[in-house]
Amino acid sequence: MRAVIRRCGNSAAIRSSASVLAAARFAPEQAAVVREEGGRVISVPARDEPVYGLDTPLAGVTPGNLHPGEGTGPPRGREVW
After folding, report:
1. Does the model's pTM come out above 0.90?
2. Which residues of 13-43 are buried (b: 16+ CB within 10 A; e: fewer)?
3. Can you name the CATH fold of 5-46?
């Protein structure tokens, strides 16, 4: 299939047929990873990255690995603590 690179706002876009996208296992509005290899543009479907909240890293905080607070001294000027 021959395609034309077109302007899309401040970016460029390549339109492709539905059959080519389906053969490459792409779906409309799906995220993709695009990179250059040897002068060619390679596009592959993006993997779903796990979403982490603060619960996962904070679960590892214990009294034994918690750092002490930093003293900042008395208020100066019009600071309120």
Report:
1. no
2. eeeeeeeeeeeeebeeeeeeeeeeeeeeeee
3. Pemi-like Protein 1; Chain: D (2.10.260)
